[in-house]
Amino acid sequence: MASNQQTYDEQVRVLQERFPRASTKHLTRLLQKHAGDIDQVRARLVQRNFRSNKWDSLEERFGTTVTSLQQEIPSAQSLKRIRLLRLMESFSGDVDAVRKVLQKVEERDHEVNADRRASRRERREELKSKYATELAELTQAGINVNRPCTLRQLEKSQGDVNKVIEKMSHRREKKEKRAELNTKYASQIAQLEADGIEIKNKRCLAHLLEKADGQVDVAKQLITEWKEKKGKNREYRHRHRNISPGGITTQVTGGAASCWRKRRELSSDDIENLKRLRSAGVHGHPMKILAMYHECNESIELTKARKDHEREMRNQQREERSLKRALFAEAQTGYVTINNREDWPRDIEQ
To answer: DSSP of 227-242, one letter per residue?
Structure first.
């Protein structure tokens, strides 16, 4: 354990010479996450610096304009600032075009949210009237029926009160068990966090300590084994996936596949073609648009027609899927209605 820490300290010193703004704790955590692979940590920090420099350049170019837009349009305040900066970059600083996009987004979100709230309210009232008797029984059993999950569980269980009570009891027991474990191993969890053990799901620490009978060293060993297994699985996936579905190749160095993908740099001609396509109303992923543009013999009219055709096909497929779902729901409702009828003969001879 001491040798590993000494190795990490040496690697941290090497990395801090290249990345002086990164903290020692952050570098140590990255090295632990990548099992001491300094090349992967360096690649990740390079990508992070690239994003940071990109952010700074966009902020320097469009920061004042974005701030004024956020004050002018209320819906822009809920968007991330980097998204607004990228919008400004995509429209080459055209404030009017960005303002139109933000207004369209605001109108669409307002309509969608209004329809969604109304449909949810109607659905909730419908379920309340449908399961009025069951809700009364659940109230007598001490279950809070005002929570939306109660109505969902009733609908999922087709009104079976016992099943809902069982699920709610199981959920309550799990919550109490989790709180008990967190209280029982609070000092061990604090010690693991102080030692630099980082896990996204904090609940796993209590379960691992329960499995290790509260021994911190055993829990660290379990975490190390789990991370090594996860790293091997990731390495296996990258080794056997040299070509991604989108046709982007991954770099393979030293027999191990790297998770950093090659970036295709846009030439000046590509950028000019993208500007012409966007001015003609063709929007989307730059690489896909350029590929479509070259497939159409570099004709903007053909590219726009093909893009519109693909959009119409997607809308048509979406409508077909919605119709199929509606027909399936109608058939299922009819089946349940027939199955619940009470006038079926009960004394049919076998």
So the answer is: HHHHHHHHHHHHHT-S
